[in-house]
Amino acid sequence: MDEGGLLGGKFLFKKLPDGLLDKTRVRCTICKAEFKYHRSSSSLAYHLRAKHPTESTSTGPRQSTLQEYGACGRITKNVREKVTNSLVVWIAKNCRPVSIVEDDGLREVIRAASGDECYNLPSRGTIVSRLHTLYGDQRAQQSSKLVQVRNVALTGDHWTSVNNDNYLGVMAHFIDNDWTMQSFALTVSKTEERHYAEACADHFLNVANEWKIKDKVTTLGTDSARNMVAAARLLPFEHMPCMAHILQRTVTVSLNDSAFERALAKCRKIVGHFKHSPANAQELKAQQAAHGHQTEPLVQDVPTRWNSTLEMIKRIQRNKFGLTTILTQQNSKVTMLTDQELDRLQKLEELLEPCRYVTELLGGERYVSCSMVLPALCHLFRIMEPSDDDPVYVLRFKKIFTTDLAQRRDSSNLTWLKIATALDPRFKDLKCLSKDERREVWASVHDLVMSETDAHQPSAQTTEEPSPKKSKMSICLLGSPDSDKEEEEDAIDCCLNLYKAEPKIDIGECPLQWWLKREGAHARLAPIARKYLSTPATTVPCERLFSLSGHIIQKKRASLSSDNVNRIVCLSNWLSLGSVTVDGLKGFL
């Protein structure tokens, strides 16, 4: 048979009486018509199209005309637009450089996937223009969320790129009307001025004014750098120092000149011995495999990298046998830790592990964290209580730790933290506070409810005609304004007693879900709870803006212009953290 089996079996050679095939004539299997065959199937294909159009689509391969190739091989305009917009979302969501559209490999991938060998990627100008459009659309959606809430908390942090450019990142945090915690980026803007307090304060005010939330901002969370603390004093917002920074600073102070320092210095030399030599690192991998351990590199501790000291200790402890074998065989100047030093590191690991847990617990942005600060610190103070079994160096570490942490705790925004703790149904018994402090907290909450009530009282000024003068007898019968105030005081006390009488929920339950179900029963307390519980305990969510995908993405960001850094990092945050729904992208895609 010819190519394609005489057009897919629709035609057969004519059979002669002696059983042989006449290859000069063919017969249609559908209508039994006979045709002369001269090694060309053009007439056969024409017959199928003319007499049997329903069968002609399944014919065998043939050479396409130029017009047919253009119609079948090229992607349509709508599909091309969808591909372009998908590229824009990918670049924004994954913080890719705009120049990636000049990548020949990406172009070949799309050509292979689409079947269009003539497809060309959109220009950088097109991508930048679409990024601006997408940013504008999504920014409007974020703004609409801020319009619907009364209170917004801010967190801010500075970051320096590998090009030595300074950026200020600011995030907004609030609890929406459905009692869901919301957090998203407001800006990642390049700053040219030195980071003096006045300049930092102006930057935060500009962001608040740009997003039209200046009158809604309740707290500003920053690290404890002196310029940031001074800037917060210049602003009309409550300052909330980052509790993660406070805790890690306490750990650093406690380790300085401690009995652990010599063992830690030895650890750093061991890590450097294997980090700076590929051959040594390969030997370590072989030892890990021989001992049935997971293959993992050693970690060097860095003062600015939280919990890195703990992770360094853990990995050396897990690989101590392999490390001992390698260092002994190499007869290296770097010596392995002694048993006594390993014991000390084990005790230090037990001291630092609760600090790691608290740091990670308070660093969340999708759940309430501010109300957990005081209970978490109380937990640390209990762990750091002296024990009769503690050696002298552990007692010294605990004393320095508790003293330093207590000082930093007292210098934080204790009033805000206490009220937030009281309004969290998990911790409303306030067992982390003394009895005197508890009374003070509930008195503060009482005053807040009174202020909230006064703020919603109708104005005394009215345009109505003055009422006729009352007689002295009617004034006496109606009572004095003081009696109304006493009634209001009693109503607020009843409101607080009703809330305190509610059973405490388990620590694993969500306080926002509790408030969602009981907002009606505690209508006076609900707006105050929404305000205080929305403040994050740390600036960790803001710092994640600068490490969306680790150090590699940080390098890619450095090659972008400052305006595109702002748009792409904000878009990446909005698209990745769930602030933008799929419905929000339908108009763009």
TrEMBL record:
Q: Where is this region: Disordered?
A: 453-474
Coiled-coil intervals, chain numbering = none
Q: Does the keyword Transport apply?
A: no
Mark out the compositionally biased spans (Polar residues).
456-465
Q: Which UniProt keywords apply?
A: DNA-binding, Metal-binding, Nucleus, Transcription, Transcription regulation, Zinc, Zinc-finger
Enumerate the InterPro entries for this protein.
Answer: HATC_C_dom, RNaseH-like_sf, Znf_BED, ZnF_BED_domain_contain
- Identify the domain of life: Eukaryota
- Predominant location of this chain? nucleus
Name the chain's protein.
Answer: BED-type domain-containing protein
Q: Which organism is it from?
A: Astatotilapia calliptera
